[in-house]
Design goal:
Length: 231
Amino acid sequence: MTSTDWDSYAHTYRQIDESSEVPLLLSAFLSGRGGTLIDVGCGEGSLLNAVRDKFGDSWKLTGFEVSEARADMARKNGHTVVVGDNEVPSDVGQFDVAVSMHVIEHVDDDRSHAVDLSRLVKPGSHVYLETPVKLKGAWYFRRNSQAGWVLDPTHLREYRSAAAVNKMLTDQGFEVVAEDLTTLAFPLAAAEMLVKRVMGGEQRNEEPSGWRAIGVRIPRYRQQAVLARRR
């Protein structure tokens, strides 16, 4: 998809399912440390907000986005965000931590994405990655020609096990330091937005609250979080 396509996608699919908390595995690693962190595919800046709120100025934060529309939303919250057509910026060895949350399932070549993340961080530094895992029997109502039935129409792959995610990383020279396999849930607001898109109703783009924020687990789907070290 081009930058223009991603901007259109950003307006259609607001990131209402983004958490306002730093993921537990990443939070445990960042705590008591400091340095430079880049969020690759930072979207509207929810993780950048969460890291800044929890750790103050201990971490110098940078975002990277392919959508100018989403980058602008993150910039409005005071973040530095670079926009580019590539899936990963061209910086080499500038960061202590590179984050890729729910990006790798969208890219053409997952192994190249992992190599590019490795290139971003200093030797011995770390990459944090999250991606859905589609267990046997899982099904969702969206579909595309590359990956079949998927959670999102732009997913080019959905891994079938946590071990497959880890192997992809170790094959590219990473050492898996820690991992966390958890349930995957969407807020009820996501279902509301889907119905309104089908019916042609007006979308509500504000952050979900009340009943709209209640998470609903996606049957037979999980989320694999991995902290890996560049050798």
